[in-house]
Amino acid sequence: MLPKFLPDLEWRSLFTLVGFCLAWGDLVQAQTVIAEPNRITIAYEAPQNPAHRSLAEAMQARRSLELVQTILSPIRLPKPLHIKLAGCDGEINAWFEGQTITLCYEFIEWTVETARKTRKPIEVAEDIAITGTFLEVALHESAHAIFDYLAIPILGREEDAADQMAALWLLSHSGPRTGGFLAGIVNLYLDEAGLKNFKQLNRPKLRFGRATAFSDAHGTPIQRMYNTLCLAYGSDPDAYRAIAEKGALPAERAEGCEGEYRQVTHAFHTLIAPHVDQDLARKVYGNGAPLARP
What we know:
By secondary structure, the chain is of the alpha/beta class.
């Protein structure tokens, strides 16, 4: 029963006004949260360090950011995501914050130095190695952004999930260059761990520095390397047979890699694929790629 101090007409007017406001609010919200593909913007910022100018020019010549933009283009996002190469005051890093992914020229410089070493665990062309390591870090940070934008639930460490997403994208889009990209990534992880070859992994004791390294949100470089190799082997054991045969991936781990790969692709198709423009995905990844919905 309505209070008597307001006439029925005034109550009806009040209810009408409230209903209109609520409907208008829902309409405005719907209009501002339309998820669309092709929402990745990119920029090559001028380096702060003059020594990075040639590096910036080389990355532009390779169309490095454009490649990342293409790989991510089928994902429907509710707002733009900006990816930039920039100077970071000497910090070797990359990160996602707000609506921007920052990839430091200092990080790229380190990958170039590693790719140019005369003795490497796996021989791979310098250009392919640099592109592979760049894609891995760029797609890793992009995974963080997508988890945030789409409110994707994650069971486990987000850094591990981001590594898995980066590996899936590489395996889906790289084609005949995938093996070279993986070799560059493996070399970088081994370099970060202070190892020069695979034989050193078989030492009775390995030195990993301070115990606090194990408290990091990321896995250790060697763990991340094995996880990436496992997904590659699990995606196609015949194509990546050499990974197991040459000892890059222990046999005990290789046995379960097909299952690990199925687990990751199932998670992608369950949680990410509903936000993917499938027509565009087939153009970018091809019909047989794991990121195109079966």
